[in-house]
Write a structure and sequence with these properties.
This protein has 431 residues and is α/β, with parallel strands linked by helices. Helices cover 29% and strands 23% of the residues. The chain is built from 12 helices and 23 strands. The strands form 6 sheets. A 4-stranded mixed beta sheet has the order 2-15-17-16. Strands 4-5-3-14 form a 4-stranded mixed beta sheet, covered by helices on one side. A hairpin with an 8-residue loop joins strand 8 and strand 9. Helix 1 packs parallel to helix 2 (50-61) and helix 7 runs parallel beside helix 9 (317-326). The protein is globular, with a radius of gyration of 21 Å.
């Protein structure tokens, strides 16, 4: 039975060690590359979540042979770059990490495909990716609003395009989709990036995983990326999924706010994930942070209270949400800048965060790409936090209990998107 809310009790300290679930970004990229590769791949520590389930369901519908190999391990039989099914209807929920790359890959497959999701997915823009694919000769129609899912994909009529241009200032997932798909053409292609690319570390994840599967792209700063001719994905045999660095942010912040130390295992300074930079942001707030190759740990500042901050957070948009909650515990007003991508995530996160922070007593100014947050003089107890079917809203606001107030989280089940066990793990480290 679905629980409509979860009451979290007041907390005063946070301390402990936990193993992180696998990274959503790595899990879905690795699944798709394993499906496209030559040979079998054993994926270790795959994330168990709604988003990954949507990718697994889609691959099964496309007749990709995969099997559960015990624990969080999955064996995927590669298709050598061609899915067996050339006509399919794919429901992808609200999983952007599945929808955007599959759009690009299926546009080059020569089949008839329909891609759709939940209502919010149909409000998330995809026009820039579709425009880029059409430059290659892809045939894609919008079922509803121009520039948004649902999509119908028809067999492509390939043009001899050696250069494809894509905007980089709305979502890095558009570039990720192109990068993963274009090697399937067998041709040398240059992707030119128009405007300022946001969320660059997520593209670095894509490039690192492509290298692991045998395709090395050449990046020219962040203006262009060259893909080689005659490229093909080849299984590395085994592929390990790192712990989720975005999920680590909640527990590291808990250590910084609630005394600590709190240690997370599964991700550290060797990570390919950009969200490990959250730990460095915490240091700028005065937190004491330590890192190893596969772990990170945080504890409160020497003086006990976090310092006010003014930070450009374009590079860590997901983990930046956790810093909005840290602002509640700072010694003065704080500003989160260059976060326009929040507007096109699972919900409009700038508007949602501003609304819910005010419920706790904060004074919040909302801009097109920023939030200014003045901490509460007195925290409001028993605030009912709406989560907008957004997993990160639910997880972030658990941190407010460290002010010693009870908090009600509405629709707590939305955390299943990336971290189904979140609230039980949270309870293990707070007291």
């Amino acid at each position: 039975m679905k629980t409509d809310f979860l009451d979290l009790p007041p907390a005063s300290t946070a301390r402990g060690t936990l193993r992180l679930p696998g990274s959503k970004s790595i899990s879905n990229r690795a699944l798709l590359l394993a499906a496209l590769a030559e040979g079998d791949t054993l994926l270790h520590d795959l994330l168990s979540s709604d988003d990954v389930d949507r990718m697994l369901d889609a691959l099964r519908t496309l007749a990709v042979d995969w099997m559960h190999a015990g624990g969080d391990n999955y064996r995927v039989r590669g298709t050598g770059g061609r899915f067996p099914v050339v006509k399919a209807d794919l429901f992808l929920g609200n999983a952007g990490t599945a929808f955007r790359p599959l759009t690009a890959v299926l546009a080059l497959m020569g089949g008839e495909y329909r891609l759709h999701g939940v209502p919010r997915m149909h409000e998330r823009p995809i026009g820039d990716l579709v425009d880029a694919l059409r430059q290659m000769g892809a045939r894609i129609d919008y079922e509803g609003n121009e520039g948004y899912p649902p999509l119908r994909i028809h067999p492509a009529q390939f043009l001899d395009a050696s250069v494809v241009r894509v905007r980089g200032d709305v979502s890095s997932q558009f570039l990720t989709g192109l990068l993963m798909a274009l090697p399937l053409t067998g041709r040398a292609v240059r992707i030119e990036i128009i405007g300022e690319l946001i969320s660059k570390p997520y593209v670095d994840i894509t490039l690192a995983l492509m290298r692991r599967f045998g395709v090395s792209a050449v990046r020219h700063d962040w203006a262009a990326i060259d893909l080689p001719a005659a490229a093909r994905y080849v299984s590395p045999g085994d592929c390990y999924v790192e712990g989720d660095a975005s999920s680590a942010s909640y527990f590291l912040a808990a250590g910084a706010i609630g005394g600590g130390p709190v240690r997370v295992e599964g991700v550290g300074y060797d990570s390919v994930q950009g969200d490990v930079a959250f730990a460095h942001a915490l240091e700028q707030l005065g937190a004491q942070v330590e890192m190893g190759p596969n772990w990170m740990e945080a504890r409160a500042p020497q003086g006990g209270q976090l310092k006010a901050f003014d930070l450009d957070l374009n590079h860590i948009p997901d983990a930046a949400m956790t810093l909005a909650i840290c602002a509640l515990f700072a010694d003065g007003p704080c500003r989160l800048r260059n976060i326009a991508s929040w507007r096109v995530k699972e919900t409009d996160r700038i508007a949602a965060m501003a609304t819910e922070l005010r419920k706790l007593g904060a004074v919040v100014e909302e801009g097109s790409d920023y939030l200014s947050i003045t901490p509460p003089a007195v925290f409001v107890a028993n605030a009912a936090i709406d989560t907008y079917d957004d997993h990160r809203m639910a997880m972030c606001f658990s941190l407010a209990t460290l002010a010693g107030v009870a908090v009600r989280i509405m629709d707590p089940g939305c955390v299943a998107k990336t971290f189904p066990e979140y609230f039980s793990r949270w309870a293990e480290v707070v007291a």
